[in-house]
Amino acid sequence: MTPTDLPDVFREYLAGCEELRPPRPNGDMYHHCFGCGPGHPTGLRVRCFATPDGVISPIVIAPRYAGPPRAAHGGIVTAYLDEVLAGAVWRATGRLSVTGEITVRFKRPVPVERPVLGRGWLVTDHGRYVDVDARLEELGTAVVLATARGRFFPVRDGAP
Hints:
The protein is of the alpha+beta class. Helix content is 18%, strand content 31%. The chain is globular, with a radius of gyration of 15 Å.
C-alpha cells in the first residue's frame, strides 16, 4: 500500500511496495537521526520501500541543501545514499546497522526540487558485516546521478 503523504509523482514507482519501518529499540534512539529520523527538525527523513531486489526511496532534495546552483551539495547526496544503503541492509537481513565505510561516485549533478529515486540492494552478507550498493537516478529516465558502495555492521541489541 502506497502512503498518501508522498508527492503524486512517486505513486507509480511505489505501487504495491511496502514501506520499511524497522523497530526502534531503546525508545526510538534514531528518532533524531539527520538522515532517517522523523524528529530531526531539518533532517532528510529518508524513507525506504521494499522491492523484490532491495529498496527504493523517493527523494526530493530541498533547495536549502544546494551546493552548486540547482544541484545538491555532495555531502547531502552522500547522506541520502547512506540511508538508502542502510535501508537495503534492513531489507536483506532484518538487522539495524551502522555505516563502517562508504564510497560515493558522482556521475551527474543531483538536482534540487526535482524527483529522484534511490535504489539499494545487498551485494554480500559476510555475517559480521554486509556489503551493499545504491544509486540515485532521475525519476522516469533511470539516468544514474550517483552511486555508492557501503560496508555496514549490525547493531547489537541495546547499542546505538
